[in-house]
From TrEMBL:
Residues 104-284 form the Reverse transcriptase domain. It comes from the Eukaryota. This is PREDICTED: Retrovirus-related Pol poly from transposon. Residues 1-10 have a biased composition (Basic and acidic residues). SUPFAM superfamilies: DNA/RNA polymerases. The lineage of its organism: Eukaryota, Viridiplantae, Streptophyta, Embryophyta, Tracheophyta. Pfam families: RT_RNaseH_2, RVT_1. Gene3D superfamilies: 3.30.70.270, HIV Type 1 Reverse Transcriptase, subunit A, domain 1. PANTHER family: RNA-DIRECTED DNA POLYMERASE HOMOLOG (PTHR24559:SF431), TRANSPOSON TY3-I GAG-POL POLYPROTEIN (PTHR24559). Residues 1-32 are annotated as: Disordered.
Amino acid sequence: VSPEEGWKPEEDVELIPLDPDQPDRKARIGSRLSPEEKVELTTFLQSNKDMFAWSPSDMPGIDPNIICHRLHVNPACKPVAQKRRNFAPERVAIIEAEIDKLLAAGFIEEVSYSEWLANVVLVAKQEKGKWRVCVDYTDLNKACPKDNFPLPRIDQLVDSTSGNQLLSFMDAYSGYNQIMMHGDDKAKTSFIIERGTYCYKVMPFGLKNAGATYQRLVNKIFKEQIGKTMEVYVDDMLVKAPKRADHIGNLAESFSLLRQYRMKLNPSKCTFGVSSGRFLGYLVTQRGIEAHPRQIKAILEMKSPSTVKEIQSLTGRAAALNRFLSRSTDKCRPFFKALKKGQRDKWDEECEVAFQNLKTYLTSPPMLSKPVPGEDLFVYLAVSNSAISSALIREELGAQHP
Protein backbone atom coordinates (compact mmCIF):
# COMPACT_ATOMS: atom_id res chain seq x y z
CA VAL A 1 0.00 0.00 0.00
CA SER A 2 1.46 3.29 -1.05
CA PRO A 3 1.96 6.05 1.52
CA GLU A 4 -0.47 8.25 -0.41
CA GLU A 5 -3.25 5.69 0.21
CA GLY A 6 -3.01 5.51 4.02
CA TRP A 7 -5.17 7.24 6.59
CA LYS A 8 -5.81 10.90 5.75
CA PRO A 9 -7.99 13.47 7.56
CA GLU A 10 -10.74 14.91 5.41
CA GLU A 11 -11.43 18.19 7.19
CA ASP A 12 -9.65 21.34 8.29
CA VAL A 13 -7.06 21.04 11.05
CA GLU A 14 -5.13 23.47 13.20
CA LEU A 15 -1.67 23.37 14.74
CA ILE A 16 -1.15 23.31 18.49
CA PRO A 17 2.22 23.60 20.31
CA LEU A 18 3.50 20.41 21.90
CA ASP A 19 6.28 22.07 23.86
CA PRO A 20 6.06 25.73 24.94
CA ASP A 21 9.87 25.80 25.16
CA GLN A 22 10.16 24.68 21.52
CA PRO A 23 7.37 26.51 19.66
CA ASP A 24 8.30 24.96 16.30
CA ARG A 25 7.23 21.54 17.57
CA LYS A 26 3.53 21.27 16.79
CA ALA A 27 0.78 18.69 16.32
CA ARG A 28 -2.41 18.80 14.25
CA ILE A 29 -5.89 18.57 15.75
CA GLY A 30 -9.36 18.86 14.23
CA SER A 31 -10.63 22.42 13.90
CA ARG A 32 -14.24 21.33 14.50
CA LEU A 33 -13.63 20.29 18.10
CA SER A 34 -15.38 22.32 20.77
CA PRO A 35 -13.19 24.76 22.79
CA GLU A 36 -13.32 22.36 25.75
CA GLU A 37 -12.33 19.39 23.59
CA LYS A 38 -9.42 21.34 22.09
CA VAL A 39 -8.09 22.20 25.55
CA GLU A 40 -8.43 18.60 26.75
CA LEU A 41 -6.76 17.14 23.64
CA THR A 42 -3.96 19.74 23.66
CA THR A 43 -3.25 19.04 27.33
CA PHE A 44 -3.12 15.30 26.64
CA LEU A 45 -0.74 15.64 23.69
CA GLN A 46 1.55 18.05 25.55
CA SER A 47 1.76 15.62 28.46
CA ASN A 48 2.80 12.91 25.98
CA LYS A 49 5.21 14.97 23.89
CA ASP A 50 7.91 12.34 24.46
CA MET A 51 5.97 10.00 22.18
CA PHE A 52 6.86 12.07 19.11
CA ALA A 53 10.16 11.86 17.24
CA TRP A 54 11.60 14.89 15.47
CA SER A 55 14.74 13.17 14.23
CA PRO A 56 16.19 9.64 14.23
CA SER A 57 18.04 10.45 17.45
CA ASP A 58 14.64 10.56 19.21
CA MET A 59 13.93 7.01 18.11
CA PRO A 60 15.35 4.25 20.37
CA GLY A 61 13.90 1.45 18.22
CA ILE A 62 11.88 -1.63 19.11
CA ASP A 63 13.60 -4.05 21.49
CA PRO A 64 15.10 -6.83 19.28
CA ASN A 65 13.96 -9.35 21.89
CA ILE A 66 10.39 -8.42 20.95
CA ILE A 67 10.88 -8.49 17.19
CA CYS A 68 13.58 -8.14 14.56
CA HIS A 69 13.52 -8.79 10.85
CA ARG A 70 14.80 -12.12 9.55
CA LEU A 71 15.40 -12.87 5.86
CA HIS A 72 15.39 -16.71 5.90
CA VAL A 73 17.35 -16.81 2.64
CA ASN A 74 17.03 -20.13 0.83
CA PRO A 75 20.43 -21.84 1.31
CA ALA A 76 20.15 -23.30 -2.19
CA CYS A 77 20.22 -19.79 -3.70
CA LYS A 78 23.63 -18.50 -4.71
CA PRO A 79 24.42 -14.97 -3.43
CA VAL A 80 24.32 -12.24 -6.06
CA ALA A 81 26.75 -9.31 -6.03
CA GLN A 82 25.49 -6.72 -8.50
CA LYS A 83 27.99 -4.69 -10.47
CA ARG A 84 27.98 -1.04 -9.41
CA ARG A 85 25.84 1.24 -11.54
CA ASN A 86 27.18 4.57 -12.69
CA PHE A 87 25.28 7.80 -12.08
CA ALA A 88 25.64 11.35 -13.33
CA PRO A 89 27.56 13.64 -10.92
CA GLU A 90 24.42 15.49 -9.75
CA ARG A 91 22.74 12.19 -8.87
CA VAL A 92 25.85 10.93 -7.10
CA ALA A 93 25.60 14.02 -4.88
CA ILE A 94 21.95 13.18 -4.07
CA ILE A 95 22.87 9.59 -3.20
CA GLU A 96 25.82 10.55 -1.00
CA ALA A 97 23.77 13.15 0.86
CA GLU A 98 21.20 10.47 1.69
CA ILE A 99 23.92 8.03 2.77
CA ASP A 100 25.32 10.67 5.13
CA LYS A 101 21.85 11.06 6.68
CA LEU A 102 21.47 7.30 7.12
CA LEU A 103 24.92 7.03 8.72
CA ALA A 104 24.17 9.91 11.09
CA ALA A 105 20.86 8.29 12.02
CA GLY A 106 22.59 4.99 12.77
CA PHE A 107 20.44 3.16 10.22
CA ILE A 108 23.37 1.82 8.16
CA GLU A 109 27.03 0.94 8.66
CA GLU A 110 30.00 0.21 6.43
CA VAL A 111 30.50 -3.41 5.51
CA SER A 112 33.26 -5.49 3.89
CA TYR A 113 33.34 -8.80 2.02
CA SER A 114 29.58 -9.08 1.66
CA GLU A 115 28.42 -11.89 -0.64
CA TRP A 116 25.14 -10.13 -1.35
CA LEU A 117 25.40 -6.71 -2.97
CA ALA A 118 22.62 -4.56 -4.42
CA ASN A 119 22.55 -1.23 -6.23
CA VAL A 120 20.79 1.95 -5.25
CA VAL A 121 18.16 3.45 -7.54
CA LEU A 122 16.70 6.94 -7.65
CA VAL A 123 12.90 7.20 -7.78
CA ALA A 124 11.25 10.52 -8.57
CA LYS A 125 8.97 11.86 -5.83
CA GLN A 126 5.66 13.57 -6.55
CA GLU A 127 7.31 16.84 -5.57
CA LYS A 128 9.04 18.06 -8.72
CA GLY A 129 12.83 17.84 -8.65
CA LYS A 130 12.92 15.61 -5.55
CA TRP A 131 14.31 12.09 -5.53
CA ARG A 132 13.96 9.10 -3.22
CA VAL A 133 17.05 6.92 -2.80
CA CYS A 134 16.09 3.23 -2.74
CA VAL A 135 17.93 -0.08 -2.85
CA ASP A 136 17.13 -2.63 -5.55
CA TYR A 137 16.69 -5.83 -3.55
CA THR A 138 15.28 -7.82 -6.49
CA ASP A 139 17.90 -10.59 -6.29
CA LEU A 140 17.75 -10.88 -2.50
CA ASN A 141 13.94 -10.95 -2.50
CA LYS A 142 13.91 -13.79 -5.04
CA ALA A 143 15.96 -15.86 -2.60
CA CYS A 144 13.60 -15.26 0.33
CA PRO A 145 10.40 -17.29 0.89
CA LYS A 146 7.20 -15.29 1.19
CA ASP A 147 6.02 -14.55 4.72
CA ASN A 148 2.29 -15.29 4.53
CA PHE A 149 1.38 -13.36 7.67
CA PRO A 150 -2.05 -11.91 6.80
CA LEU A 151 -2.75 -8.23 6.30
CA PRO A 152 -6.12 -6.94 7.54
CA ARG A 153 -9.03 -7.05 5.11
CA ILE A 154 -9.50 -3.55 3.75
CA ASP A 155 -13.30 -3.78 3.49
CA GLN A 156 -13.55 -4.79 7.15
CA LEU A 157 -11.24 -1.97 8.22
CA VAL A 158 -13.30 0.58 6.32
CA ASP A 159 -16.59 -0.74 7.74
CA SER A 160 -15.17 -0.69 11.27
CA THR A 161 -13.86 2.85 10.90
CA SER A 162 -17.15 4.42 9.80
CA GLY A 163 -19.82 5.49 12.28
CA ASN A 164 -17.42 6.91 14.88
CA GLN A 165 -17.75 10.43 16.26
CA LEU A 166 -14.01 11.08 16.55
CA LEU A 167 -10.93 9.63 14.86
CA SER A 168 -7.21 10.13 15.36
CA PHE A 169 -4.80 9.21 12.57
CA MET A 170 -1.30 8.19 13.70
CA ASP A 171 1.83 7.32 11.77
CA ALA A 172 5.06 5.95 13.19
CA TYR A 173 8.24 7.94 12.63
CA SER A 174 10.14 6.08 9.90
CA GLY A 175 8.18 3.04 11.03
CA TYR A 176 10.08 0.25 9.29
CA ASN A 177 13.37 1.67 10.56
CA GLN A 178 12.22 1.26 14.17
CA ILE A 179 12.64 -2.51 13.73
CA MET A 180 16.19 -3.87 13.85
CA MET A 181 17.65 -6.35 11.35
CA HIS A 182 18.69 -9.67 12.85
CA GLY A 183 22.45 -9.75 13.30
CA ASP A 184 22.87 -12.74 10.99
CA ASP A 185 21.07 -10.97 8.15
CA LYS A 186 22.45 -7.43 8.24
CA ALA A 187 25.24 -8.13 5.75
CA LYS A 188 22.75 -9.56 3.25
CA THR A 189 21.19 -6.08 2.91
CA SER A 190 24.48 -4.67 1.63
CA PHE A 191 24.47 -2.17 -1.22
CA ILE A 192 27.16 -0.45 -3.22
CA ILE A 193 27.69 3.18 -4.17
CA GLU A 194 30.65 5.04 -5.61
CA ARG A 195 32.39 5.55 -2.29
CA GLY A 196 31.88 2.16 -0.67
CA THR A 197 29.59 -0.61 0.53
CA TYR A 198 27.08 -0.41 3.36
CA CYS A 199 24.46 -2.56 5.04
CA TYR A 200 21.34 -1.81 7.04
CA LYS A 201 21.21 -2.16 10.82
CA VAL A 202 17.46 -1.51 10.73
CA MET A 203 14.74 -2.97 8.53
CA PRO A 204 14.76 -1.01 5.25
CA PHE A 205 12.02 -0.44 2.73
CA GLY A 206 12.13 -2.72 -0.28
CA LEU A 207 12.57 -6.06 1.44
CA LYS A 208 10.04 -8.68 0.41
CA ASN A 209 8.56 -9.39 3.84
CA ALA A 210 9.06 -6.07 5.60
CA GLY A 211 5.33 -5.30 5.57
CA ALA A 212 4.49 -8.67 7.11
CA THR A 213 7.05 -8.16 9.88
CA TYR A 214 5.62 -4.73 10.67
CA GLN A 215 2.02 -6.00 10.67
CA ARG A 216 3.07 -8.82 13.02
CA LEU A 217 4.53 -6.22 15.40
CA VAL A 218 1.51 -3.89 15.49
CA ASN A 219 -0.86 -6.85 15.85
CA LYS A 220 1.15 -7.88 18.90
CA ILE A 221 1.23 -4.38 20.38
CA PHE A 222 -2.46 -3.60 19.88
CA LYS A 223 -3.98 -7.09 20.06
CA GLU A 224 -6.56 -6.03 22.68
CA GLN A 225 -7.47 -2.76 20.91
CA ILE A 226 -7.76 -3.79 17.25
CA GLY A 227 -11.39 -3.95 16.18
CA LYS A 228 -12.52 -2.15 19.35
CA THR A 229 -10.77 1.19 19.83
CA MET A 230 -8.15 0.94 17.07
CA GLU A 231 -7.57 -0.19 13.50
CA VAL A 232 -4.07 -0.79 12.14
CA TYR A 233 -2.92 -1.39 8.58
CA VAL A 234 0.87 -1.91 8.52
CA ASP A 235 2.29 1.46 9.65
CA ASP A 236 -1.02 3.36 9.62
CA MET A 237 -2.76 3.48 12.99
CA LEU A 238 -6.20 4.85 13.78
CA VAL A 239 -7.79 5.42 17.18
CA LYS A 240 -11.59 5.67 17.07
CA ALA A 241 -14.39 6.57 19.44
CA PRO A 242 -18.13 6.00 18.86
CA LYS A 243 -18.69 8.60 21.61
CA ARG A 244 -16.68 11.82 21.75
CA ALA A 245 -16.22 11.54 25.51
CA ASP A 246 -14.29 8.26 25.11
CA HIS A 247 -11.67 9.53 22.66
CA ILE A 248 -9.04 10.79 25.11
CA GLY A 249 -9.26 7.56 27.10
CA ASN A 250 -8.79 5.48 23.95
CA LEU A 251 -5.81 7.62 22.95
CA ALA A 252 -4.28 7.25 26.42
CA GLU A 253 -4.54 3.47 26.16
CA SER A 254 -2.82 3.47 22.76
CA PHE A 255 -0.08 5.87 23.86
CA SER A 256 0.64 3.69 26.90
CA LEU A 257 1.27 0.71 24.63
CA LEU A 258 3.38 2.76 22.23
CA ARG A 259 5.53 3.87 25.16
CA GLN A 260 5.83 0.32 26.46
CA TYR A 261 7.14 -0.89 23.08
CA ARG A 262 9.28 2.24 22.46
CA MET A 263 7.52 3.14 19.22
CA LYS A 264 7.64 6.82 18.28
CA LEU A 265 5.17 8.84 16.20
CA ASN A 266 5.79 11.26 13.36
CA PRO A 267 4.04 14.54 14.33
CA SER A 268 3.93 15.75 10.72
CA LYS A 269 1.86 12.71 9.72
CA CYS A 270 -0.49 12.52 12.71
CA THR A 271 -3.87 14.21 13.08
CA PHE A 272 -5.95 13.98 16.24
CA GLY A 273 -9.64 14.51 16.89
CA VAL A 274 -11.33 14.65 13.47
CA SER A 275 -14.72 13.30 12.42
CA SER A 276 -13.91 12.04 8.91
CA GLY A 277 -11.00 10.67 6.93
CA ARG A 278 -9.89 8.80 3.83
CA PHE A 279 -8.61 5.26 3.70
CA LEU A 280 -7.65 3.40 0.52
CA GLY A 281 -10.04 5.34 -1.66
CA TYR A 282 -12.93 5.38 0.80
CA LEU A 283 -14.25 8.39 2.68
CA VAL A 284 -15.33 7.32 6.17
CA THR A 285 -17.52 9.52 8.35
CA GLN A 286 -19.94 9.14 11.23
CA ARG A 287 -22.75 8.90 8.65
CA GLY A 288 -21.24 6.05 6.64
CA ILE A 289 -18.84 5.20 3.81
CA GLU A 290 -18.58 7.27 0.64
CA ALA A 291 -16.56 6.91 -2.52
CA HIS A 292 -13.69 9.35 -2.51
CA PRO A 293 -14.40 12.34 -4.78
CA ARG A 294 -10.96 12.01 -6.36
CA GLN A 295 -11.78 8.54 -7.71
CA ILE A 296 -15.13 9.69 -9.05
CA LYS A 297 -13.55 12.75 -10.63
CA ALA A 298 -11.02 10.52 -12.40
CA ILE A 299 -13.86 8.88 -14.36
CA LEU A 300 -16.02 11.98 -14.82
CA GLU A 301 -13.12 13.87 -16.41
CA MET A 302 -12.02 10.94 -18.56
CA LYS A 303 -12.45 11.22 -22.32
CA SER A 304 -13.96 8.36 -24.29
CA PRO A 305 -11.25 5.68 -24.57
CA SER A 306 -9.79 5.01 -27.99
CA THR A 307 -7.07 2.44 -27.20
CA VAL A 308 -6.87 -0.85 -25.35
CA LYS A 309 -4.74 0.77 -22.65
CA GLU A 310 -7.33 3.50 -22.11
CA ILE A 311 -10.16 0.95 -21.86
CA GLN A 312 -8.10 -1.01 -19.33
CA SER A 313 -7.59 2.20 -17.36
CA LEU A 314 -11.36 2.76 -17.33
CA THR A 315 -12.12 -0.77 -16.10
CA GLY A 316 -9.50 -0.38 -13.38
CA ARG A 317 -11.02 2.89 -12.18
CA ALA A 318 -14.50 1.37 -12.22
CA ALA A 319 -13.27 -1.65 -10.25
CA ALA A 320 -11.97 0.68 -7.52
CA LEU A 321 -15.54 1.97 -7.13
CA ASN A 322 -17.16 -1.46 -7.34
CA ARG A 323 -18.80 -1.28 -3.90
CA PHE A 324 -20.65 1.87 -4.95
CA LEU A 325 -21.86 0.61 -8.34
CA SER A 326 -25.18 -1.21 -8.31
CA ARG A 327 -25.23 -3.98 -10.94
CA SER A 328 -21.62 -3.15 -11.72
CA THR A 329 -21.18 -6.16 -14.04
CA ASP A 330 -24.00 -4.98 -16.28
CA LYS A 331 -22.74 -1.40 -16.23
CA CYS A 332 -19.19 -2.36 -17.22
CA ARG A 333 -19.86 -5.39 -19.44
CA PRO A 334 -19.50 -3.46 -22.74
CA PHE A 335 -15.99 -2.36 -21.71
CA PHE A 336 -14.85 -5.94 -21.07
CA LYS A 337 -16.49 -7.07 -24.33
CA ALA A 338 -14.45 -4.42 -26.14
CA LEU A 339 -11.23 -5.79 -24.66
CA LYS A 340 -12.05 -9.25 -26.03
CA LYS A 341 -12.78 -8.10 -29.57
CA GLY A 342 -10.30 -8.94 -32.29
CA GLN A 343 -10.84 -5.90 -34.46
CA ARG A 344 -8.81 -2.72 -34.08
CA ASP A 345 -11.81 -0.42 -33.55
CA LYS A 346 -12.86 -1.72 -30.15
CA TRP A 347 -14.81 1.26 -28.80
CA ASP A 348 -18.31 1.18 -30.32
CA GLU A 349 -21.68 2.84 -29.68
CA GLU A 350 -22.61 0.32 -26.98
CA CYS A 351 -19.42 1.21 -25.09
CA GLU A 352 -20.07 4.93 -25.44
CA VAL A 353 -23.63 4.65 -24.13
CA ALA A 354 -22.43 2.57 -21.16
CA PHE A 355 -19.64 5.07 -20.50
CA GLN A 356 -21.98 8.05 -20.41
CA ASN A 357 -24.48 6.15 -18.24
CA LEU A 358 -21.67 5.33 -15.81
CA LYS A 359 -20.71 9.00 -15.59
CA THR A 360 -24.33 9.98 -14.94
CA TYR A 361 -24.63 7.37 -12.17
CA LEU A 362 -21.43 8.61 -10.50
CA THR A 363 -22.75 12.16 -10.18
CA SER A 364 -24.80 10.92 -7.20
CA PRO A 365 -23.27 7.67 -5.90
CA PRO A 366 -24.83 5.97 -2.87
CA MET A 367 -23.50 6.20 0.67
CA LEU A 368 -22.87 2.85 2.33
CA SER A 369 -24.03 2.44 5.91
CA LYS A 370 -22.53 0.36 8.68
CA PRO A 371 -24.69 -2.59 9.82
CA VAL A 372 -25.70 -2.79 13.45
CA PRO A 373 -24.91 -6.17 15.06
CA GLY A 374 -28.08 -8.23 15.43
CA GLU A 375 -30.28 -6.23 13.06
CA ASP A 376 -32.18 -7.77 10.15
CA LEU A 377 -30.58 -7.39 6.73
CA PHE A 378 -32.19 -7.88 3.33
CA VAL A 379 -30.58 -9.44 0.27
CA TYR A 380 -31.74 -8.02 -3.05
CA LEU A 381 -31.01 -9.85 -6.31
CA ALA A 382 -30.99 -8.42 -9.83
CA VAL A 383 -30.92 -10.83 -12.77
CA SER A 384 -30.15 -9.85 -16.36
CA ASN A 385 -29.29 -11.84 -19.47
CA SER A 386 -25.58 -11.49 -18.67
CA ALA A 387 -25.17 -11.26 -14.89
CA ILE A 388 -26.63 -11.83 -11.44
CA SER A 389 -26.05 -9.00 -8.98
CA SER A 390 -26.81 -8.73 -5.28
CA ALA A 391 -26.94 -6.06 -2.60
CA LEU A 392 -27.14 -6.25 1.18
CA ILE A 393 -29.65 -3.70 2.49
CA ARG A 394 -30.47 -2.45 5.98
CA GLU A 395 -33.45 -0.38 7.12
CA GLU A 396 -33.28 2.64 9.39
CA LEU A 397 -36.16 4.99 10.24
CA GLY A 398 -38.21 3.62 7.38
CA ALA A 399 -35.51 4.16 4.77
CA GLN A 400 -33.36 1.52 3.10
CA HIS A 401 -29.58 1.86 2.88
CA PRO A 402 -26.98 -0.31 1.11
